[in-house]
Specification:
This protein folds into two domains: 141 residues, Aspartate Aminotransferase, domain 1 (Alpha-Beta Complex), CATH 3.90.1150; 254 residues, Type I PLP-dependent aspartate aminotransferase-like (Major domain) (Aspartate Aminotransferase, domain 2, 3-Layer(aba) Sandwich), CATH 3.40.640. Strands 4-10-9-8-7-5-6 form a seven-stranded mixed β-sheet, sandwiched between helices. A four-stranded antiparallel β-sheet has the order 13-14-17-16, with helices on one face. A two-stranded antiparallel ribbon has the order 1-2. α2 runs antiparallel to α10 and α3 crosses α10. It is an alpha/beta fold. The radius of gyration is 22 Å and the shape is globular. The chain starts with 10 loop residues before the first helix and ends with a helix. 38% of the residues lie in helices and 17% in strands.
């Protein structure tokens, strides 16, 4: 781990932990500014995953042989590591999923499918990722529930003054993002959870963009559910987490049926394990869970508070540099934001700009970012997005600004 004795982190030194950052793209050094879509992986995570497949590869929970025992031990230790990481009261409150999307679908279909009825209200915000919108649309259509939305102001923040009229006793669940994947807006999630509790509503936090970037404790936030993905926090793809209070999870019926989530099966009927195993049918992503624990160790070695400061510094520095690029307009707050910057340039469509940037080794993301309603709210078909993480540097931002200046001249 590349740390210095003081509270300051050797950010440039950390880059040596990420082999992919030595790649060259179209003859240029890679500038990876697409971490909001998926982060890069440090060698510590790659080594742990490789070690599992080389020395421990076996199915968990079901075998009596040595490899299965070792795999099971590390898989369940990973569950406890996640619980500690987010401040859960018990490892049994941690359900392994494929990612944020599956976690939210589990809540929408299993919990809400049992407890919501026609006429009940589901409260969301206008800035939600499709993963925290489409599952609720499907549920509402199936059972006759209603959707409400907290509007987004022109500056990219929520119109929280409208909560009193939106968050009423009819609302059964309030689901919202912690950090917007397009705007970088950091929402006051603890306050939102408290307001939801005051009217008897459940809460779900989409923490995909916050979990690896800032300190987070589910008991301090007071949420009922929290969902996140490993691949956005230096862990492998295909692994994610749903946190739920144990008493809540215990009331939820199984979602997927199959092996491992049962206690007994006859031809006519099955009985099911207690949470979290009730929700983990079939062979899980064992290597992914072990890799997630390794990623947590890596992030904790740096410190999420330090990572957050680094994100904020990079975002502020980038906004200053981008302000001088002709015809460039940034969406979202001008301050108090995460390391995500979405912008439009009058001279070029986001897809064209992203393709142009790639010629210089700059990896941006162009499009609607699974935020189509939010794009319509701002009257744009999409944006270009630069997103930073612990391995990003000010020098890379300088190079990005230079490339954007080149784009202005090219598309003129």
């Amino acid at each position: 781990m590349h740390k210095v004795a003081t509270s300051r982190v050797d950010w440039s030194g950390l880059r040596e932990d990420f082999p992919i950052l030595r790649e060259r793209v179209n003859g240029h050094p890679l500038i990876y500014f697409d971490s909001a879509a998926s982060s890069q992986k440090p060698r510590a995570v790659l080594d742990v995953v490789r070690n599992y497949y080389e020395h421990e590869n076996a199915n968990v929970h079901r075998g009596l042989h040595a490899l299965s025992a070792r795999a099971t031990e590390h898989y369940e230790k990973s569950r406890q590591r996640v619980a500690d990481f987010i401040g859960a009261a018990s490892a049994d409150e941690i359900v392994f999923t494929r990612g944020t999307t599956e976690s939210i679908n589990l809540v929408a279909q299993a919990w809400a499918g049992k407890f919501l009825r026609a006429g009940d209200v589901i409260l969301l915000t206008e800035m939600e990722h499709h993963s925290n919108l489409v599952p609720w649309q499907l549920l509402a259509e199936r059972i006759g529930a209603r959707l409400r939305f907290v509007p987004v102001r022109d500056d990219g923040t929520l119109e929280l003054e409208k909560l009193s009229s939106l968050l009423t006793a009819e609302v059964k669940i309030f689901a919202f993002t912690h950090v917007s994947n397009s705007l970088g807006t950091i929402n006051p999630v603890a306050e939102l959870c408290q307001k939801a509790r005051s009217v008897g509503a459940m809460t779900l936090i989409d923490a995909a963009q916050s979990i690896g970037h800032m300190p987070l404790n589910v008991q301090e936030l007071g949420c009922d559910f929290l969902a996140f993905s490993g691949h956005k926090m230096c862990a492998p793809t295909g692994i994610g987490v749903l946190y739920g209070g144990l008493d809540i999870l215990d009331s939820v019926p199984p979602w997927h049926g199959g092996g491992e989530m049962i206690t007994s099966v006859t031809l006519e009927k099955s009985t099911f394990k207690k949470p979290p195993h009730r929700f983990e049918a079939g062979t899980p992503n064992i290597a992914g869970a072990i890799g997630l624990a390794a990623a947590i160790d890596y992030l904790e070695g740096i410190g999420r508070a330090e990572i957050f400061k680094h994100d904020v510094d990079l975002a502020s520095y980038a906004l200053q540099g981008m302000a001088d690029v002709a015809g460039l307009h940034v969406l979202g707050p001008s301050r108090d934001r995460g390391g995500v910057i979405s912008f439009v340039m009058g001279a070029a469509h986001p897809h064209d700009l992203t393709t142009f940037a790639d010629q210089y080794g700059l990896a941006l993301r162009g499009g609607h970012h699974c935020n189509q309603p939010l794009m319509r709210r701002f009257g744009v078909p999409g944006t270009s997005r630069a997103s930073f993480y612990l391995y990003s540097t000010r020098e890379e931002i300088d190079r990005m600004v230079d490339i954007l200046d080149k784009a202005v001249r090219f598309f003129k």
